[in-house]
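Why run this: before we spend reagent on co-expression, it is cheaper to look at a predicted model of the complex and decide which construct boundaries make sense. The entries below are exactly what would go into the expression plan.
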Amino acid sequence: MSKFLERCKGNKDSVGAYAVQCGECSKWRFIPTKEEFESIRHNFIENPWYCNKKPGVTCDDPADLEYDNTRIWVFDKPNIPKAPPNTERMLIMRRDCSKMDAHYIMPNGKKVRSGVEVEKFLEAYPEYKGKISPSSFSFTVPKVMDERSPRKFEAKASPSSNKRLKISTKKE
DNA sequence: GCCACCGGTGGC
DNA sequence: GCCACCGGTGGC
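The model came back. Tokens follow.
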């Protein structure tokens, strides 16, 4: 169950940092760029990630970060296709941190929010047909770890839930 | 008039 | 119960 994390931030793409968990030692390692992260993610199941894929790093080195509540963690599904060339996959955190929304910025700056909208886009701009494959879009959003969400926390705390409480005012 | 944002829901 | 998707709208 190795996973990825991302973190809540501002308004643009809400992800503040990317990390992967090593398939061997389970330590978390930062991945410097979105592109690199997407590239690791797109075939993660067949191609798990290990510390030694990071230059000069081995499992003996201390983790880059720990899974704690100093930041908002969001876990991606593995094997999401890379964003097609000249498009960007955006993940936007809701204000209450309850969930994220996914969309793509197309090469001409247009925004699409679903597979149907991709199809409509290709109808509207046929010059992209054949260049952009509808199957390489995924609108699957990462899962927000729920103790991060004030709203869900309240909802959970009100009825008799014996959940561990872990508040932690997040954010910066 | 647009668009970022959020709520609702249908299908699984 | 979850989550992908879409409609509505409030603020600009």
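Chain A has one domain: 2-169. Residues 99, 102, 113-117, 139-141 of chain A lie near DNA strand C (CB under 10 Å from a C1'). Bring this page to Monday's planning discussion.
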